[in-house]
Amino acid sequence: SVVIQECYVQNTAREYAKLYAAEAEPLEGFGEVPEIIPIFLIHRPSNNIPYATVEEELVGEFVKYSVKDGREVNFLRRDSEAGQKCCTFQHWVYEKTNGNLLVTDLQGVGMKLTDVGIATLAKGYKGFKGNCSFSFIEQFRALHQCNEYCEMLGLKSLRTTHQKQRKATSTKSKNLPNSSTVKKIMPKKAREHRDLISSEH
After folding, report:
1. C-beta neighbour count of 148 within 10 angstroms
2. Residues 69, 79, 105, 115: which is the catalytic one?
3. Strands 112-114 and 35-36, bridge-based pairing
4. 81 domain residue, yes or no
5. Does any domain span residue 144?
6. Which structural domain, as residue segments, surrounds residue 35?
7. Is the pLDDT of residue 129 over 80?
8. Per the record, where are the segments of Polar residues compositional bias (predicted)?
9. Residue 25, SS3?
10. What pLDDT sits at residue 84?
11. Does residue 193 carry a pLDDT above 60?
12. If pLDDT is split at 50, 70 and 90, which confidence band does 72 have?
């Protein structure tokens, strides 16, 4: 069921957040680390909806900190400490899982996060399949800008040499539509799969 999947995803993301905290907290000047709150599944056999989730109520301004799609520009993500640390958490998970998994939809109040999602490549990662389209991973790679917390953790920049070269080339290359170059690289099957996912949402 969707509810069980939601619990599974959030609690898996929570385990990654704990590992991230264990690595980041001891670093001088890092400070408080975002926490994903636990979500509990309860079974109510007499109820029409037999499964429900219970979690701590977050009081305060609810903010979305992570990139959901390229059109969303969230200044609180870029400018707030919690937002920057969430972006670093995404980068850290991405690097830890060799680009196979990304925690998405990081949102919550201050450093307490809930309703998160996970994107994995189609085959999943270590037996775990995410609940978000793997296009989120591609998007993260394209849009992530490292900040001081990424540097503190020694994360590798996602800006590849290929992108740097493209900036250096003459203005003629600007006329090439980017989409056509992407399509050539991606196998047809994967492209259809992605289109299918994006049309569902």
Report:
1. 12
2. 105
3. parallel
4. yes
5. yes
6. 2-153
7. yes
8. 170-182
9. coil
10. 92
11. no
12. low
Helix (H, G, I), strand (E, B) or coil at 32: coil
Q: Residue 166 domain-assigned?
A: no
* Cβ contact 85:33 at 8 Å: yes
What is the end-to-end Cα distance of the chain in Å, rounded?
18
Question: For the segment 133-190, what is each residue's pLDDT rounded down to a tens digit?
Answer: 888 999 899 888 899 999 999 999 987 644 544 455 444 444 444 444 444 444 444 4
pTM for this entry:
0.75
- The CATH number for 61's domain is 3.20.200.10
> What 3-state class would DSSP assign to 31?
coil
The reply to whether 105 belongs to the active site is yes
**Distance (Å) of CA 31 to CA 10, 81, 114, 157:** 23, 10, 20, 22
Q: Is 179 part of a structural domain of the chain?
A: no
* Mean pLDDT across 13-21: 97
What's the rounded Cα separation, in Å, for the pair 91 and 31? 18
Backbone angles phi, psi at 103, to 5 degrees: -85, 125
Q: 3-state SS string over 84-132?
A: HHHHHHHHHHHHHCCCCEEEECCEEECCEEECCEEEECCCCECCECCCE
Contact between 158 and 141 under an 8 Å Cβ cutoff? The reply is: yes
